[in-house]
Amino acid sequence: MPRAEPVVRDESAVREYILLGADGRPYPSRTPGAVGGHRRMKIYGRLDCPAALRALARGGYVTHRVFFADEPTAVAAGYRPCAVCSPDAYRRWRARQAG
């Protein structure tokens, strides 16, 4: 399962992050993810999303946290935009679901 903290294989080595790809499978990356998500709810959003930060502070979100390189990768993996931090993208997604 992807982790919020970087995986350090060797103290002298470059940090390695675990991200999800468009196929939903984890892969190692030397670059941290640009967007975060919730595995069970299949939602993605900004790393500074107020709703995600509140959930993380309560402690229930951490075990389901995933990261993506970018928004297109999150969408390709089947995740939807967060209504709190990405309201325009959420409205477009919602309109596509209704139509």
From TrEMBL:
UniProt domain Ada DNA repair metal-binding: residue ranges: 36-88
UniProt keyword annotations, A-Z: Activator
InterPro entries associated with the record: Ada-like_dom_sf, Ada_DNA_repair_Zn-bd
Coiled-coil segments on the chain, per record: none
Transmembrane spans: none
Lineage: superkingdom: Bacteria
One Pfam family linked to the record: Ada_Zn_binding
Protein name: Metal-binding protein
Species name: Nocardia tengchongensis
